[in-house]
């Protein structure tokens, strides 16, 4: 016995029929060799198709999504990063740069070395690190101590390395290196002993003005006390690159009192900045 069907009559503007047929054709909803508008309506009614506007993202949301996916990859959650990327590609109204980045993420998923490095650190196992820097130069390092640190926007491997050639760190910190996880090429076990820690220096700071009350203590602060109208801080520093980037944000409200080597690095950067603006005293 033939299944009873209901019929409806639609009043639609000119050209709508062709548009509906094009949608049905694109979705493969056919009656014989022709697109089926009836099949399209049934699919919508049975929730086989989603109806509504795409997920619209503004520029700040696009940036947040890219950061979230990068952090998932750096943290070793590759499957979660892939799931989020696919969802956005299917449902999001994405800017071209983000869409291209997500397509690359899905087509060529980035292998995260976070789990491998975590295992080496936990086992206190030295390892050879094969790395490509920002200038596309490939290098090899022998790592004998490592920590995963978060600097500004992402996770990094901060490591004590045997190799010191080309290091821009101070002589007291010459063995310390900082590596982006997404630029690691390979990790292989190495022989020898594991170091106890990174190299550190103690930097003395004076904080002034509004920052005296607004300053938020950092995990590497050794001492932190207020005297008169200033705050005095002693901090363990393993990498002056990140340290100077931080205190430059504070401007004239944060002074490096010692050591002279860190003072000189900061002064050199300030001089170069003045040169760029043709402002020399």
TrEMBL record:
Signal sequence coordinates: none
Coiled coil region boundaries: none
Top-rank lineage group of the source organism: Bacteria
TM spans (from-to): none
WCX domain location: 211-273
PANTHER family: PROTEIN PAFB, PTHR34580
Protein name, UniProt field: WCX domain-containing protein
Originating organism: Halomicronema hongdechloris C2206
Lineage, broadest ranks: Bacteria, Bacillati, Cyanobacteriota, Cyanophyceae, Nodosilineales
